[in-house]
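Hi! If you just cloned this repository, the fastest way to understand the data is to look at a raw example. We've pasted two of them here, unedited. The first protein comes first, obviously.
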Amino acid sequence: MNTFRFWTLLGCFLCFIMSEVSAQQNLSTTNKKAINAYQDGLQALQERKIDEAFQQFEEAIERDNLFAEAYYQLGRLYEQNRQFGNAILNYEKSYNSNPEAGVANNALQLLGSLYMRKGEYQKAKAYLELLLPKIPPANNLTIQRIKRSIANAEFALKALEQPLDIKPLTLPNTINAFDTQYFPTLTADKETLIFTAQNYSNRDENLYVSKWTNSQWQQAQSLSELINTSQNEGTASIAADGRTLVFTACGGRNSLGSCDLFVSYRDGNDWTKPANMGQAVNSGEWDSQPSLSADGRTLYFVSDRKGSIGKRDIWVSKQDSIGQWQKAQNVGNIINTSEDDLSPFIHANGQTLFFSSEGHAGMGGLDLFMSQKQGINWSAPQNLGYPINTQDDQVALFITADGQKGYYSLEQDTGERYKKSKLVEITLPSSLQAKIQATTYLKGTITDAKTQQKLSAELELVALNPSQTVGKFISDAQTGQYISVLNTSGEYALFVNKQGYFFKSLHFDFSQTHALDKVLNISLEPIQRDAKEILNNIFFATNQWDLQPQSATELDKLVVLLKGNPMLSVEISGHTDDIGKDADNMILSQKRAKEVMNYLINKGIPSNKIKAEGYGETKPYVPNTSDENRKLNRRIEVKFL
């Protein structure tokens, strides 16, 4: 699935033989026995006789200890076998023995690369600076890459001087139970963790899930038999409510390309049969590494399709008003570079994009970056710093909705054939938390107020200033459960709608208070006589009765409800707290109720179906014992007659 770039033990035997070695007459030695041994070594490589190649190159050096090309080939062999220390030693001997040899530039380039990989940035910079003036001006692409590597080394040296306070905590063995595990994704409540894992004995990538129960992560289980097969499935993303899953599958399914994105929906405790996301999202090329927005309506992913700026780019697709995915678009050259740009993660706030790149200034290889949505554009990516980023590749960072915790895979180079990785958790430093707009969540269960039956209902989250829908969710038909994400700033209305029931409205104001995650179970009243409901998103100025503009969203929903139930009449009642004179409160409550009634009449509700009553402070919802209680008592109610 190409989720990680693994090193193989033997690699390509022939890719570095003839293209990097000059003809015999240009070798750095005239010793015939050394040359014969060297040529025998090249022949052994062509025949994939690795041990013999080692012996022949070593013999060539014994015949001439200044034989640059022989040292160079030994370095290549050691590098392919992941013996990087020996590789560096031989590359240095190759260059030092003859700086003018045909392989000298290659040796310098590989020394720079290996020292970057080791995190020895000063040495890497020194070798790359030796190399730069040796490159012909016509090789502009090579020059630019060397300059970028030098800039990376300089960036890394500064980053090492200002480390972040990061202490990775390895997740328990109930999760890290495989040879390697990576690409974590969590629900907004941080109680469900889904990740990709595999054991190298069968090389089969699958998706696994662990639940946070009794203050600990439970044993990871296969996500679903409908999702995991004998082919590769992985690199998944889940919507905030845990009910929409997008994942990558390679081979064995109805695919358009080498790897495609598929979607599945949670139905109770299981998942639906995965469906290919179609040509609007997938291409005939490699498509992978999805990231869903909190509401599941925007999808970021990686592809190497036609139209990419670099090798692999980040793309985005959005759902239209009827839930159809629109043709994917490249996110643009602020994010994407001429190199690999991978593993996007869109935070629950919908504004902060994290991703991995080797094209932006970093510490070598793939580093993690963040960028903020600014209208239709993105801000210049910021490197997340050391030690989140190191000389190793960093991919697939997940940041919790509250912006406090991070999850990613930490590679372990054990010297074996494949790199291994474990999932770790970090607490983000305050400097990084300050750059992330935190979100909070609401979760709970929707039920029938009379029978307590679990209900599937639509939840609509509306930002009130200005009024716009920022999310739509549906509670689970079997469990009635829902999760909704809110940004921790501004005012919001949450509407819960179901045919045959009075809609429920809730109001959240985070303008001056700190947001807290909430568990809120909601009971819906069936539409019938004497049923009543508080309208929590009707707004008036203090001691005034003119409706404020943000009231329109809720009132328009009431209009729709009344038109759908024309046989019923309603009473609009106004209520106040106990502050002020009783008579004044009675008049104010009557005028507010009448203002709401007039709005409904102007929207087409027959006047003979509505009456307005003011009750002042005579019918408190809760005792007037605190400012919070008094706020609850200042309300508009609707009652079916």
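Ok, and the second one:
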Amino acid sequence: MKVKMTVARAMVEVLKSEGVEIIFGIPGAAIYPFYDALYSSDIKHVLVRTEQAAVHEASGYARTTGKVGVCVATSGPGATNLITGIATAYMDSVPIVAITGQVNSSLIGKDVFQEVDITGATAPFTKHNYLVKDPKKIVRVLKEAFYIASTGRRGPVLVDVPIDVQMQEIEFEIPREIEIPGYKPREKGHPLQIKRAVEAIEAAKKPVICSGGGVIASKASEELRILVEKQKIPVISTLMGIGAISTNHPYYLGMIGSHGQREANLALRQADLLIVVGARLADRALGDTKITDNMKIIHIDIDPAEIGKNVDTNIPIVGDAKYVLSEINKRISEREEFWAAEIKAQKKILPDDGKLHPYDVLREISTQYDGEYIITTDVGQHQIWAAHHLYIKRPGTFITSGGLGTMGYGVPAAIGAKFGSPDDEVIAITGDGSFQMLMQELATIKREQVPVKIVLFNNTRLGMVYELQKRRCTGRFIATCLDGNPDFMILAKAYGIEGMRLESKEKLKEAISVMKSYKGPFLLEVVTDPDEPTIP
């Protein structure tokens, strides 16, 4: 039955029909009709302090729940402030629907106040976007946006709605099905290619599986574990693939790449078959490791554009990782020996010199929490420390910006993750450089009383670049010393957040215990040596 209502109210009704319970955003003049309609709904709105944080919080929510995250902004600078967050979601295949207000449709193209071509600006890094000028199309467009964001290789979709369109009246009716001509994501891999993959795995003497973020996105971790244990295949992962299999699993060797673990890179160099699942193997994933002519490659990915893009592939399989791995498991036999046992045994033992190192902190967190947490990280040295030293027990509990490498991601992602999974402990791992990109989200934490924990490594440096300048620029340091850092304990107190500064190893266990037992938001500042290397 059709009901008359404004486009703004129809937008809210579509969100409700998609099961949306929470959105993140900031209102403005060009989006006020939508906010007015939102007032009467049960959808929770989280007021952020900058629009970029809105996308990151929607991302943390989406990656924790598997649902589509929703963020909202007004026109002009509100919309452009979303751009970094949208690009971050695009690179990491996170399902987001971003709704933006636009100036009056009759004024578009006239450079009026707070006008910007946000659909044109975001076209390169959205799965799709829409400028809705016909009010009758709003329901179909929003339904399509959710469908596109959540199917195939997931990603962000932007819907831009002029203010006058939001105010017009339409006859509202939810379509039963969404059919988009030409958009047919392929989930089932070709049976012949799957048969070839099984034969190649069984013929290989030194196979290696590289797990990427696609394993986690498709919820294929159990299928991966079955294949790994059946064939006793060592597993290496990309940054985005951490947690696809427990990092304590006996066949897991660590993260590969330029900042990867030695054992993982060594296994990749020795392998005669590489099975890539849900990863694109970009430059940082491969690092200095060259794919030799003697190594065969099976590449499983739901996005055909990724197969063969960075490495030549012998057996391409386009399909959902969960389905393809399940089919392989039905046909694969069992292997008797784990060929990488000697490599696994070479794991580096880190020294205990009495000093407080970041890896000490992360390992103590792992011990006291026993992996029962969701971790978010920012980008920099602390991201690599976390990737190497934290125990990640379950898939989807290591949330980071992999493809774009966006500083400022960690804290807002933690806020979104906590809203998505309120019963889980959520810990943001950050550095003093990244934290200060979006530290105003402490206000969101205070306003919403979000009980996230923040571990802030303070080395008064932009550590990753500082280390780069030290090694490659003969110590000619420029623009990497953060001498103007605030007192982070006073800052936390100003927002009503409890905090503690950790400066010595003697207080380590106590500090983690205090953080763990505290029921509200908590900031643990860890004073770190500026010359602490990314990889010891």
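That's it. A detail worth noticing about the second one: The mean pLDDT is 95.
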